[in-house]
Amino acid sequence: MTVKLSASEVSVMLAQSMETLARELLPGGKKSGAEWAAGSLAGEPGTRVSVHLYGPKAGVWKNFAGDESGDALDLVAACVTAGDTKAAYKWACNWLGLTNEKVEERRVEIRQKAEEAKQQSDELARKRRGRAREQWLAAQENILDTPVDFYLRGRGIDLRRLDHPPHALRFGAEHYCAETGTSLPAMLAAITNLDGRIVALHQTWLGQHGGQWSKAKLELPKKVLGPFAGSCIRLRRGETGQPLKKVSPAETVAIGEGIETCLSVALACPELRILAAISLGNLGTVRLPDSARKVLILADRDEHPAARNGLRKAIDTHLAAGREVRLAMPPKGKDFNDAIQ
């Protein structure tokens, strides 16, 4: 009797060698942290296609240009077999060197490696959370008259117009940057879960250019240390001044993506409770207390299909949770920070 691995099992096996596979399928791409970035599914240089290389998400990919996504076997189908999944399965089995005699042995190996990968991922996440807390606590609490303050002013955000600067923001005078291998000034933001515990750190490296402070001239001037799904940067408590867990049903919780966008809205509407979700994908997954019944999404003006679909998904997620959802978009520019400038 011929024994075959299922498509999902083959996909898991491909994911175990994801960096090697990504280099072969997308040769014009390059490694960026724990991801492989390419310009298209044809393997051109760029950043529109992103593939997770390690951990529990290994093999998961997304093409932001065409709003396509899937697992490792789907990537083979998209890159090699023009979407033909049966042909992709055959190609993958050949690439993996599978034979009928090895199937059961491979299944045991898959289970073992999956458990090992989960343990390693959990341990790595724990270490990153610890580093995030340590680095934020070690940073300077008062950000007024620091490069963070000067950078935000250059973006049209004068913190003195608020009753106090956001407690989530701190200044790292010498914050290590892996891209340069040196320490640079940085704006650090605490990313916290619903319980208020720091789970990750948002980092914006800064530099002086023409006498003005702005984002450092790096390939990736902004990075997040630690997993942050479901968490957020708490920038304003609003007029109630209560912690997030004590939000009342009558209060509106405003959620945007970036720090600068959200602070721009805070200047115009200081009475709002404002959270930065960090990414479009996290807009709908930020955990709110059951008492939160009203959400205002601070959307970027982005007509790309992937952005529109991501926004729709965020709205639907909050609606499914039984919340009233309103949408705010900037009158001009891509985001609210563009609008105030």
Automatic annotation (TrEMBL):
Q: CDD domains recorded for this chain?
A: TOPRIM_primases
Q: Name one Pfam family in it.
A: Toprim_3
- Coiled-coil parts of chain: 100-127
**Residue span, Toprim domain:** 253-341
Keywords recorded for this protein, A-Z: Coiled coil
In this chain the DUF7146 domain maps to 127-235
How is this protein named in the record?
A: Toprim domain-containing protein
